Fold:
Amino acid sequence: MRLVTFTESGNTRIGILKDDQVIDLSAVAPALPKDMLSFLQAGEAAMQKAQDIASTEAGSLPVSGVTLESPIQNPPKILAVGMNYMDHFNEVKDVFKLELPKTPVIFNKQTSSVNRPYGEVYLPGESEQMDYEGELAIVIGKRCRRVPKEKAQDVIAGFTICNDFTIRDWQMQAPTMTMGKSWDSHCPLGPALVTPDEVDFGHLNFKTFVNGEERQSSNTEQLIFDCPAIIEYLSTAFTLEPGDVIATGTSSGVIMFMPGQPWLKEGDVVRVEFDGLGHIENKVVKDPGGAFAG
Structure:
């Protein structure tokens, strides 16, 4: 099942994507929550109701007539794993004199960085060092703590695509990396939340393109810490909640380690494709700024 958040006629709600149509859950099942976070918080009964609808209903709205939003517009947490692809580790280990990590390298992106799957991303005036990172993202479906690896799939609501846009010089200002990872618009997600029964998450090919030029090409088999291991590690320390997003890391091919470092510039279009999940695509635009509102 492919769950989406969409806006139509000025009204944002959730639905099920089937081919080029969207089943409007608010029309078919008005008792269900109308936003994804509340839907996930409603638990297995809500998910089963949606599954039943997906198997019997046809789409009522053409996807071309709606705006797809981030599946999760207000995640409680956005967590991410650094240096988690073997091909990426091999790309950078000599530059930074790194040893293979013994535990996942965790950082966070602020929730205000969430963006639509096809939304514009802002190039700030404060830096030219804007980079991409195509990633598989896990969406948590159950409140949980101390989840063993063998039970991790039971707490996953689904998977989506993330582009962890990063301002590299700001990232390097502090070990936490938070400032370089959290600019507004720098976490596009989507296009759908795809439930685990449709995703072989350990064996997914993905590619990242800039203006049609392939920059990243890898497979989740390259993950140093796979999805169950990440969930086990995070949930040992703190509770994971429905709607939490976990970006699992990126592969080799980022700009930071390319000859000449051709940083993203205004007008560039970045596309990330994942087998079984679809694609997201984002145009880089000048940060519109904005005045302080006190």
